[in-house]
């Protein structure tokens, strides 16, 4: 890691003969994305989500661009405003090409198992920062793949980090970057995104009925706040609460399910779960 500026880093990497790549969170930087697309050959840019299971989100997803000129003026606005968390920069071997980098991240795009799958926001410099802060050196090649060096804003300053073994690496069975501690506010955001994705994938019709009756985002936030109040944080507890709440949207569910004095979250959940199973005819009381 070094204290050089991103411009100095790009010039240095270019002098080493490496290709430069911009990983852009295009949802918040559409103007910059379009400026780059207008003058970029097809083989020099790529929407990462295209040709993946989340291709319908391609327009809002990350884009990658090869940067021929380290002093490209189209990057100036980004480099002057790193607090916008627009993404990060990487250098790769010229022979690897952009598609090798795209392939690498597509293989790491979806994490978790159904129904708790989530999109890994590798293009978010805050996500990258946390990963690089916690990963052991031995885990870096599997995470960074063909990347030789990464340049990113870590919240207070620019950081640069070299990959000890750039190249093609398989996705580990248990990726270490999926175990990186998540900050509280980001954790809550991820939980809400995952909950919404679960509802859309598994209970679309019922969730659509909610949207016809009230603001679905407010409804979901209310359910997650209730889960926080009761200490129900396990995936199966959240799933149970969401599914049952879809069936009763008048608020009576929360009234009936209140925790008893001195009842632990686990005991509270088990009692409510068993009672619900009984009333729905799925189990004896």
From TrEMBL:
<dbReference type="Pfam" id="PF13503">
    <property type="entry name" value="DUF4123"/>
</dbReference>
<feature type="domain" description="DUF4123">
    <location>
        <begin position="22"/>
        <end position="135"/>
    </location>
</feature>
<protein>
    <submittedName>
        <fullName>DUF4123 domain-containing protein</fullName>
    </submittedName>
</protein>
<dbReference type="InterPro" id="IPR025391">
    <property type="entry name" value="DUF4123"/>
</dbReference>
């Amino acid at each position: 890691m070094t204290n050089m500026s991103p411009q100095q880093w790009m010039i240095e990497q270019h002098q080493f003969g490496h290709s430069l790549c911009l990983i852009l969170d295009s949802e918040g930087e559409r103007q910059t994305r379009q400026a780059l697309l207008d003058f970029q050959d097809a083989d020099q840019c790529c929407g990462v989500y295209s040709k993946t299971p989340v291709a319908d989100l391609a327009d809002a997803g990350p884009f990658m661009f090869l940067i021929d000129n380290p002093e490209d003026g189209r990057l100036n606005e980004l480099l002057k405003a790193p607090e916008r968390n627009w993404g990060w920069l990487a250098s790769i071997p010229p022979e690897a090409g952009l598609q090798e980098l795209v392939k690498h991240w597509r293989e790491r795009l979806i994490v978790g198992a159904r129904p708790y799958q989530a999109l890994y926001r590798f293009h978010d410099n805050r996500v990258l920062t946390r990963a690089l802060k916690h990963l052991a050196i031995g885990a870096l090649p599997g995470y960074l793949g063909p990347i030789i060096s990464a340049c990113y804003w870590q919240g207070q300053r620019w950081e640069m980090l070299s990959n000890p073994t750039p190249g093609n690496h398989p996705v580990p069975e248990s990726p270490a970057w999926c175990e990186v501690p998540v900050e509280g506010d980001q954790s809550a955001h991820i939980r809400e995104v995952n909950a919404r994705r679960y509802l859309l994938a598994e209970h679309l019709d019922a969730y659509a009925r909610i949207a016809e009756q009230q603001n679905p985002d407010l409804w979901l936030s209310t359910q997650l706040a209730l889960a926080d109040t009761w200490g129900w944080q396990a995936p199966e507890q959240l799933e149970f609460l969401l599914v049952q709440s879809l069936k009763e949207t008048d608020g009576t569910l929360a009234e009936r399910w209140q925790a008893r004095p001195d009842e632990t979250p686990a005991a509270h959940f088990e009692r409510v779960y068993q009672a619900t199973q009984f009333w729905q005819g799925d189990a004896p009381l």
